[in-house]
Amino acid sequence: MTETKKQKLSKPKKTLVLNAFTNGTLYSQIPGIWRHPNDKTSTHTELSYWTQLAKTAERGKLNSIFIADTLTYFDVYKGPNNPGPSLEVGINAPKLDPSIPISAMASVTESIGFGITFSTVSEHPYLLARRLATLDHLTQGRLGWNIVASYLPSVGRQLLNGGELLAHEDRYAQTQEYLEIVYKLLLSSWREDALIKDKSRGVYVDSSRVRNIEHDGKFFKLNGASITSIIPQGFPVIIQAGTSKQGKEFAAKNAEIIFVGSGNNLSQSGESIKEIRQLAQNYGRDPYSIKFLVSAAPILGKTHQEAIDKWEDYSSYANPEGSQIMFSSQSGINLDKYEWDEPFGQEVGKNNASIGLTKNTLNSTTKTTSRRKIFENSKEYTKLLVGTGEEVANIIEEWVELYDIDGFNFSQSVFPESLEDIVEILIPELQKRGLFWYDYPVPNGTFRENLYQQKDHSFLPKDHPGYQYRWTKDESREDFENKLKDEGIL
Ligand SMILES: Cc1cc2nc3c(=O)[nH]c(=O)nc-3n(C[C@H](O)[C@H](O)[C@H](O)COP(=O)(O)O)c2cc1C
Which keywords does this chain's UniProt record carry (predicted)? Predict the structure, then answer.
């Protein structure tokens, strides 16, 4: 046996982190699929859509349902400020506030987590801290927060008093400050044993164990105590997905789960993983405590031919405008100005949009890229994982080995069919290979306990910057405040 083969065999396999990816809209990897007879994404306005999603994903023992959110319209294409194309194709609109169905999903499940996107421009950090606390309480510790800074110009116009988003670099500075306020509210305002419920004295909360947070920063000011009690996980699992230079720094410092790209830009994703693990190490964190996920959209069949037939059927519903609408908003470039084969690469990176998402779609910012290439990329993406459970698992296993990937966000093409296929065809094959668990390691546990496969691991790990904000039951107020002063937090 060769040395590399021996090394490969002796390396323990990773237990993958697997999510079902969705959005508060008629979400599919294939824009226009809502016309397919089996597709039920247009029922996302009914609670049963969400409870079915949750039950199916938990049947497959997935780590979490991840819910993306971008708040406002994709309206750069044929714009600016034109919601028409997005509404007609049914892409990213109409849309719901996706945090609301989480309670309903939690009520029909026991162990699956819920990763939800909240932007740091959507509301004051005090309100978001209360919202996160509410959701972590009601799910009994199954919440994750995907921290985004927003990139759509429509967010500026519609949410920021008609103004503009901060410049890209400042968005991350604002986001770091926002996160620190939420750390303070959820971890430093209440001592972890403040809620005493002492019936004999008639005292519900020991108020000497609750302190005001005084924050006077560049972007926010706040003075007062958190209104919510300590939550089951202390702090939700932290998720992040920006892969610009600033995005990588922010993620390396704070995130526990990081989304780096997708199946059609794997070598770029592999480079990001390597770079962010190194950055995390520079911040004193265990680089392998961070789980890196890439997006993938498997289309599965019981036979190879069945999978191919499904792909051909699904892709015949793809509306080519969809990829143009999406990319225009992510890149900030109105593709409608260009002919189908006209290069537009010279415009890439010259505005305030998402750097990471633009790079992910283009794979490289070549000057020769065109609208046709954008459409072809989106089609190629749906073709990457088409096959039987065995065939798709072979590819996944190879990607994991080659690029040091820890898991996947599985998007669906047709709902609920694609998710059912993942659960019934792909998951059993991954289980058979030792790449996925047969059951949650901590049934009824928290999101973080299952993420790290360890009971009583509900709080952030010791080497995480959020750890030092926690007011533990052994610390007097004075000792705690002195500690915060020493650490430069107070
Ligand atoms: C899998 C994945 C999911 C994402 N989900 C969201 C989302 O829900 N909302 C959002 O505003 N941005 C989302 N993004 C975009 C990034 O979080 C980030 O905000 C954006 O790329 C801008 O940051 P950057 O310029 O540092 O890349 C997602 C990116 C990826 C790869």
Answer: Flavoprotein, FMN, Monooxygenase, Oxidoreductase
